[in-house]
Amino acid sequence: MKTNRPKERLTEYNDIIKENDHIYDRLARILGLSQCGFWILYALRAENTPLIQSELCAGLYLPKQTINSALKKMEKEGYLELVRGRDQRSKQILLTAKGTRLCERTVDQVIRIEQDAFEGLSCKEQDAFLSLFHKYTDLLKKNIPKITCPEGEENEHEDTII
């Protein structure tokens, strides 16, 4: 559906984003992973280097508590090992052999189909897609201060979602 009206285009964009989110939710379910577990494994494979929890939280845009719970569960199941990092408070997240085999059966497949999909775009299309998506995201972040709390309410937590 092509249109020149900004409101309809924004609706179309939001539909695409929701569909994209749904695709990843569905992939996680198909692969037998929780959404958070999927993204943790994905990040570890994509980075191909040990990460610490704060890096995962920042890179996945998920709360520390959510990441921590998933890490503990995955460690208990034998997929991850949490090893003391550079300081007392940080632990490196390492895949165990069992975790590596799980990645090979799951997130590695997703990374391959993403690469195939992205390679379906020409280099010029890839550049335009990334450039415009970055620009839109930056403009959206820039406009966040325009949001006000409902009357009589204070937003105590910046990232609280209803």
What does this structure look like?
With 162 residues, this protein is mainly alpha-helical. It has a single domain (31-146), classed as Arc Repressor Mutant, subunit A, CATH 1.10.10. 62% of the residues lie in helices and 7% in strands. The chain is built from seven helices and three strands; from the N terminus they run ααβααββααα. The protein has a three-stranded antiparallel β-sheet with strand order 1-3-2. The longest helix has 25 residues, at 6-30. The protein is globular, with a radius of gyration of 19 Å.
Total count of domains = 1
> What's the N-to-C terminus distance?
31 Å
Give the CA-based shape. globular
- Average residue pLDDT: 90
Low-pLDDT parts are none
Order of helices and strands: HHEHHEEHHH
Main sheet: strands, sense, barrel: 3 strands, antiparallel
Q: What's the count of strands?
A: 3
CATH fold call: Arc Repressor Mutant, subunit A
Q: How many helices does DSSP assign? A: 7
Beta-strand content bin: 5-15%
Strand order of the largest sheet: 1-3-2
CATH class: Mainly Alpha
| Radius of gyration of CA atoms, rounded to a whole number | 19 Å
Provide the CATH superfamily: Winged helix-like DNA-binding domain superfamily/Winged helix DNA-binding domain
